[in-house]
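Run log, item B.
One chain of 317 residues. Sequence copied directly from the ordering sheet:
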Amino acid sequence: MTLRDSIAHGLQNVVNKLENKPEHDRHGSVPTPQSHTDAPHSASPHQSPFSPHHERKPYWQPNYNHVTDSFEHELGSDGWGNHEVEDYVNSSDNSWTQNGQIHVRGVVDGNRYTSARLSSKQKLSKNRGVLSARINAPLAVGIWPAFWLLPTQPFDWPRDGEIDIFEAWNASADNHTCFHWGHHDAANWERHRVVVTPLDVHKLWVDANATSMGEGIVVEFAWIDEDNHPDQARMVWYIDGRPVMKTTKPAGTRRMRDWRVLINMAMGGDVCQGRVPAPGNYQMVVRDLAMFDEPVGGWSTFDRDFENTAGGFPNRP
């Protein structure tokens, strides 16, 4: 990605739950050590009571024949603005599709760290809609799995914006819902909206080879960004059907129809406080990935959720 040389500055100034978050287009970080081998083996792969489909018909779902049918690999080992250690590769050892699932696997073998960063060929495409996915991911030191959005290329980061839907940092059992549209410095502290939500580790759990996993958490992102009312664009984030954050879309950020989906697993980096993962495999599984014309309950439910949901907290440097 571009801008990597200008991003790693000011990381020590980031507080309010985003302490040490990287200033760039993303990856990895902080608290509570929890090895990927410590997750509960009793979790079962049954479906959550909250179904992301709920009789809705998707206007897009990925093709599960091969990962490259629906995604492009973003490649490289240049640290991604955060001194990360992973090499993003296009390899069947690190990313594949199977039984309606998208797999991204980080592999640590000695001093070699390989992973995958997938960027959807499909854009959100519409002025209003919902992106939905069910996710299982590891919680481990040095690991940052993420499901998020960036505008399509070419784009101007961070001015065009960044939307974080799922991210769990460095063994912390918390999800960070975020909207960013500025650098991490004193002049831009109000341009970072964040809500931190505790995660159910039993639901999130997945073993190193995805042979056992919990039911997963369902994350959704709903937006309205109409042509005739661009100054009234609104967004709501959900976890397992519960709204967790809202925001209006700031002036100058890209139209929502121009955004794409990213799935990746970063390793190491400034936000992991120099920690790297232990040798082994770390696997993220994304299921039920789809884009819908409306939220569960329709747009009247979205309006109510927008009215009653927290707006996110500014990140002060």
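Observations after the first pass:
- The domain at 4-314 is CATH 2.60.120.200 (Jelly Rolls).
- The chain is about 5% helix and 35% strand.
Flagged for discussion on Thursday.
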